[in-house]
Amino acid sequence: MMRRLLCVAVLLLPCAAGAGQRAANAARAGSGRADALPRDPKALLALGARSDGLALSGLRNWTITIDYQLYDAQGLRTQAGVFQEWWAGPDDYRMRFSRPGYHLDAWVTPKGSYSIGDPNLPMAERLVYRWMMEPIPPEMDTDGYELWRRVMLLPNSLQFPCVVMNLAHAAPEDPDPINPQYCFDSSQPVLRMADTEDGERIVYRALAALRSQYLPGEFVARVGRMPFLSARLVGGRIYAKLPEGVLTPPEQAVPGPRPETAVLYMSTGHALDAHAISRPMLSQAAINSRMENGMESLAYAVTIGTDGKMSDVRVIGDNAPEIVDMVTKELKQWRFRPFVAGGVAVPVRARIWLNFEKQLGE
């Protein structure tokens, strides 16, 4: 016995997906004032974490399928992947990722965890899981931040209540930090947009629903104007009981740790500097030859992999176009000691701020 669980509505219109699901009035979606949700920013984040995504839903015996797409620095499509998950409970589930260059099939059972492929997910797969399955992490660390509530006014008179996480003590080497923010629909606790400290902007284009739980239907993540990742919820079911054998690992599955999905964000600062091994930089002559002004600044969003190498190097903004390509090539030569979480090397998303000064007489 099974029931379709998904009803997807473009542009976050609320929808009904069958008996037992929250009734919603489509005319209210995205309309009205931004005071329909809690005014306390911490309470709004907590409500969003409970209501949006499946991390705290308490629902069982469901399965979903998500398509995702990677892009290059010019915003062109590169690799496409598929994510699937079958869930009976926190100690009884299976997840599968598949795209060119990476494949994982992992089972978590009451007796242990088993996998075919590396359960330490690459950054792209971590971001897909984060922004589709738990848009607001259930255990978000707000230490070191001051939470503010603001209202984003859009040209079409929509109002989105936002929670801004202001860094209490910004690093002196990063004079213009990006404060994470989460912007919600005006009438329901679902994300419409999020900004991260490394320069990503995630925009949600659709909403799905499972009983009383909202699910992201589609998102696009950008750095500057260019997309670097998108994902779309394409199907799902809720069962009285999951199909026989779907949660049973095969003999060739290898015992090991559970799949690691957490996303670690980091900005320019002492923690990032402490991991640096080699940071070759442009010669002063090369800088002078490309600079038109006396001072230029560049901010980059990058992924630092478990091997300490940079990838997904994207400039934030349109400043200093004459030296962007040259600096980007140099950044890819930087090396870091791996970042470790729970005793395991993990990839991180980082924001790097660089200042260049043109020296006369060079």
Offer a few descriptive terms.
362 residues; mainly beta; outer membrane lipoprotein receptor (LolB), chain A; TolA/TonB C-terminal domain; 2 domains; 15-stranded antiparallel β-sheet; four-stranded mixed β-sheet; 5 helices
Written account of the structure:
By secondary structure, this protein is mainly β. The chain folds into two domains: 2-261, outer membrane lipoprotein receptor (LolB), chain A (Clam), CATH 2.50.20; 265-357, TonB (TolA/TonB C-terminal domain, 2-Layer Sandwich). It has five helices and 23 strands. The protein has helices spanning 41-51, 123-133, 270-274, 284-290, 321-331; strands at residues 2-4, 9-10, 62-71, 77-89, 92-99, 102-109, 112-116, 145-153, 159-167, 181-184, 191-195, 200-210, 213-223, 226-239, 254-256, 264-267, 276-278, 295-304, 310-316, 335-336, 339-341, 344-346, 348-357. The model is unreliable at 1-5 and 8-34 (pLDDT under 50).
Gross geometry: globular
Classify the beta-strand content into a percent band: 35-45%
Q: Please indicate the count of domains.
A: 2
- Euclidean distance between termini CA atoms: 76 Å
Based on CA atoms alone, the radius of gyration comes out at 22 Å
Would you tell me the structural class of the helices and strands?
Answer: mainly beta
Extended strand count: 23
Helix-strand pattern, N to C? Answer: EEHEEEEEHEEEEEEEEEHEHEEHEEEE
Please write out the topology:
Blueprint: E1 2-4, E2 9-10, H1 41-51, E3 62-71, E4 77-89, E5 92-99, E6 102-109, E7 112-116, H2 123-133, E8 145-153, E9 159-167, E10 181-184, E11 191-195, E12 200-210, E13 213-223, E14 226-239, E15 254-256, E16 264-267, H3 270-274, E17 276-278, H4 284-290, E18 295-304, E19 310-316, H5 321-331, E20 335-336, E21 339-341, E22 344-346, E23 348-357
Parallel strand pairs: 16-23
Antiparallel strand pairs: 1-14, 2-12, 3-4, 3-14, 4-5, 5-6, 6-7, 7-15, 8-9, 9-10, 10-11, 11-12, 12-13, 13-14, 17-20, 18-19, 18-23, 21-22
